[in-house]
Amino acid sequence: MSFKLLWHSLILVGLAAIAMLVVVACSSDEKKGPIFLIEQDWDGQLVTTAVAKVLLEQEMGYEVAQKFAAADSAAMFAGLESGDFHFACCNWPSFSAGFLKEFVDTKGAVERLGTTGISGSNGWFIPRYVVEGDSERGIAPIAPGLTSYQEMNEYASIFATADTGDKGRLLDFTPAWDYRNQERLDALAVNYQVVFSGSETASLAELDASYKRGDPVLMAMWAPHWAHAKYDMVEIALPAFTDDCYPSGTNFACGWPADPVAKLVWPGFKDEFPKAYEFFGNFHITNDQQDTMVLAVTDGGKDYAAAAQEWVDANEDIWKSWIP
């Protein structure tokens, strides 16, 4: 073989090798963002999303942005369908039964990605001093027999406000959440009216003010939630949830099922960000872990990002296995 032919052969082999490397590199090179995480209007969601953001950016090199959507709202599901939003960490089924049926079960336009790890519960709560009094604060019990929905009518006037007339008031968050508290009150023949505060922040601000004054207040609450650690609250007993109760059925004369808090993603996410999709599948936060971070915000004065960073720095043994 002549030197010229040998040189041409070597050039061709080199070009072929370069082309092969380019193909391999391109096939394994995942887009690095931006990944759009949903930011919602309650503390537990915000700290949990902040943990995901820290790990995606610092451990996996993604560009991450956050977009607001009111908790479990139509905007959230529409955004996950279109790809404007990519991931929601903390969907409570009892708050969004109608949207889940439409977007996940019927249309297949939003994907469930397993549970977050948080086991949620819902109920109606009053401060303990309303039932038992508080001798240290000089508060006498004003509803000593109030333990379940069956006694609520007897004490309706205690919880009545200018907005509700002769009906007691049940403080709720926002009609965007599929809580159906008014339907439950009506089905249980309880003479109370739902009044919406508009947000978690507004409801908790009213609870704090009422608690400091020793005033009666009845409100919808969920757990895990930092308020149960800060305020001594007792739950009003409701009939146990059964399969014919909403959201499984159409009966509202009952409480809620246990809520396995779930992760939701845009259906195209797996193809566009396969490693991040695997990370989200592995991502798992417990009630205690979330509460620790939320208390660092509400009682420790940290912002959500700082609370999440502190948790990440102290818990590599937990999150390391989440990284693909």
Topology:
Elements: H1 3-28, E1 35-39, H2 43-58, E2 64-68, H3 74-82, E3 87-91, H4 97-106, E4 111-127, H5 128-132, H6 156-159, E5 168-172, H7 181-187, E6 192-196, H8 200-213, E7 219-223, H9 227-230, E8 233-235, E9 259-265, H10 269-272, H11 274-282, H12 287-298, H13 304-314, H14 316-319
Parallel strand pairs: 1-2, 5-6
Antiparallel strand pairs: 3-9, 4-7, 4-8, 4-9
Helix pairs in contact: 2-12, 2-13, 12-13
Query: Largest sheet, described in full?
Result: 5 strands, antiparallel
Q: First CA to last CA: what distance?
A: 50 Å
Give the helix level as a range of percent. 40-55%
Unreliable stretches, pLDDT < 50, 5 or more residues?
2-7, 10-28
Q: Kindly report the average pLDDT value.
A: 90
Number of helices: 14
Q: What general form does the structure show?
A: globular
Q: In what range is the share of β-strand residues? A: 15-25%
SSE pattern: HEHEHEHEHHEHEHEHEEHHHHH
According to DSSP, the number of beta strands is 9
Give the radius of gyration. 26 Å
Structural class: alpha/beta
